[in-house]
């Protein structure tokens, strides 16, 4: 195997301010308290894992599962003592999303307020980007 020559050019760049990055996923206080409650019942798990799967009439659907450890390619979001891991396939899909927990007389569920969604199905189970 022969070594190849790589040429690099150095240019002076004016100093620029670093902008704060936006979290891939933010949780509402309601979601944080529900996740804490769920994880209190599962002491051998360290957080929740969020991902997307191909499902439903519109293409993609969210899924949640308990996580015992962080996967090699998972992105970790820590907020108010709660750890949420985002599966690699879902990282770009969930960018800028707010995770909320809503409870009413008929249902209780996590809601994902995702600005990247282009369309959803009528029942709200699946979405497309």
UniProtKB/TrEMBL annotation:
Occurrences of domain Core (ranges): 25-125
Pfam families recorded for this chain? Answer: Fe-S_biosyn (PF01521)
Superkingdom to which the source organism belongs: Eukaryota
Q: Which NCBIfam families match?
A: iron-sulfur cluster assembly accessory protein (TIGR00049)
Q: Which family does it belong to?
A: Belongs to the HesB/IscA family.
This protein is called what?
A: Iron-sulfur cluster assembly 1 homolog, mitochondrial
Source organism? Staurois parvus
Organismal lineage: Eukaryota, Metazoa, Chordata, Craniata, Vertebrata
């Amino acid at each position: 195997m022969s070594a190849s020559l790589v040429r690099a050019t150095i240019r002076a760049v004016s100093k620029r301010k670093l902008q704060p990055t936006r979290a891939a996923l933010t949780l509402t206080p309601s979601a944080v308290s529900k996740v804490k409650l769920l994880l209190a019942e599962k002491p051998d798990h360290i957080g929740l894992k969020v991902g997307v799967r191909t499902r439903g009439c519109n293409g993609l659907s969210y899924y949640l599962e308990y996580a015992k450890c962080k996967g090699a390619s998972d992105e970790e979001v820590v907020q108010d003592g709660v750890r949420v891991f985002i599966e690699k396939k879902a990282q770009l899909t969930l960018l800028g999303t707010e995770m909320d927990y809503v409870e009413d007389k008929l249902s209780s569920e996590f809601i994902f307020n995702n600005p990247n969604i282009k369309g959803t199905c009528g029942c709200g189970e699946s979405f497309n980007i």
